[in-house]
Input
Amino acid sequence: GAAAPGGNDVTVCGVDGLRTAAAVLAFRRASDPARARSLADAVVRAGRGSGIADADIREMMNGIAADAPDRPWLRAAVDSAFARAAAPAAPDTARALTTGDSLALLRTENQRLSARNAKLQADVRGLEESSNKPDLVSFLESFVKEEFGLGIGWVGLYFVATVALFRGRTPGKRLLGIRIIRLNGKPIGWWAAFERFGGYAAGLATGLLGFFQIFWDQNRQAIHDRIAETVVIDERVSR
Output
């Protein structure tokens, strides 16, 4: 036995029931008015052959039409099918679906539903994984992956290039009248500037304590200054 698809509790049995179920599936997927009329006739014939009352067949088909408002011609196909079914059968009436056609339609529908079910399960797993992470963690992960990598590159270029090209003076340091110098008295080159910028990572790794170290260090050196052997001086005092 099988339940004819379409959202109605109509039970059919045997080969006739298989034909009815396949005919209903085909009608539900009809893509044009002409095909819908042909398949509606097949549903009516198969349903009657299975012993289903006309009222139940019509209700089942109207339910399918109601679920597809974008295909208004489905309901028209239902009405015309019952109108033709009430008239004497013409010699060239379209044949009912064969058992082979019915099985093929059911297999196709089963494959489609299996694929859809697999996709839904994958979506559910993805939602479960994302819902297990706090919003802040998700935001930080996204920021680090998508924004931080690009941002740190531009920041690094700024600090390395300005320090190396302007002899230890970034635009901000120039504005404040301060400058970075090396303890050995040599000019700050590209490598020394890069090494000093790399020391910022150590400052971050210490929870910013490496930056606040200037408040208690004898030479007012932050951790990146100690790594690169540099110190920041006030040029206004030295003059």
User: Anything to note?
Assistant: The longest strand covers residues 178-182. DSSP finds eleven helices and four strands in the chain. Strands lie at 2-3, 11-12, 178-182, 230-234.
